Amino acid sequence: MSHELKAITREEHLRFVADRPSVSPLQVPAWGEVKPEWRAESLGWFDRAGRLTGAGLVLLRPLPLPGPKRYLAYLPEGPDLDWNTVDLAGLLRPMLAYLRTRGAFAVRMGPPVVARCWRAETVKAAIADPRVRRLGDVVPTAKDPGAARIAGRLRALGWRRPGDGGGDGFASGQPRYVCRVPLAGRSLEDVQGGFNQQWRRNIKKAERAGVKVVRGDQEDLRVFHELYVETAERDRFTPRPLAYFRRMWTALTAEHPDRMRLYLAHHDGDVLAAATMLTVGDHVWYSYGASTSRGREVRPSNALQWRMMSDAHELGASVYDFRGIGDGLDAGDPLLGLLRFKIGAGGEAVEYLGEWEYPLNRLLHRALGVYLSRR
Questions:
Q1: DSSP class of residue 80?
Q2: Whole-angstrom Cα distance, residue 277 to residue 297?
Q3: Whole-angstrom distance, CA of residue 113 vs CA of residue 165
Q4: DSSP conformational letter for 264
Q5: Looking at residues 38-51, what average pLDDT do you find?
Q6: Cα distance between residue 375 and residue 370, in whole Å
Q7: Which of 45, 196, 247, 276 has its CA 20 to 30 A from that of 156?
């Protein structure tokens, strides 16, 4: 079936999102306002009857070159389409043609397609086995054969994973591996029953110590950011500025009052940990987390996550998404501790199809990849 692709209004896009059980928060119209250095457009796919059957938020970032503007086109964790259609070319070729007219020299997207899943107990056993180096080498609990078919079609259409062409991917994108705690059809007692012993002990320890987790507002973003900067220094990553989080709050909460929430863990008059939570449909995401080195013995991070999971459950969420994890299982892997923490909450490890690129201008695409690799 042929489809027509064209720009759609914010209102059309939001109506489409409202009818979907889950759409990434990076694919709602407000996300474009969070990224002012990119130009954002909402795209819609229409069938022959004129019905909107797919949508996506594309971010266009200009290259700092003289002459006509040329753009990177990026659809993070999108677009939201029928990826199982036999006519994938009929959906993607119009998108490429449209973005070419907008000056794009390369297109990157992240199909929201789950390829494999591993239950918590499977991941724990793999971590304990010194012969297993990577999560991808572990037999999955569940595997979707449709994901392999989609990957094959993408390759046949000329799409490639970033780096497949010799390191010319234009930056690291969204995580391919995530950890998700299922909530649908489960009571909070069921959810906590899925925690490992350390998680349950830490939640009780926080309760006995008097840790209180409260919802914050826009004014509390300053406290959150102070902890976030401390976390960045401790974990050696570059923090985003406070203005970024204020922009997130303003844009997302204006679109929907519960799109973004802020939580803070208090103890003896001090804020020890804080985190942001995003909601679209019946899917809830843990977004950014921050903590101080003070008071770790009262386990504020466990208390914080439990409150967020509880509130997600109250909202009717089907899943609480811990977001990114690494797939390395070696004892020396710097992300192994994060994997242990998230899997300890009874979550499952999930592998998505990952991000894919299509070079509309191979020379510019490769030149940018070389530049980024040397920064």
A1: B
A2: 24
A3: 22
A4: E
A5: 96
A6: 9
A7: 45
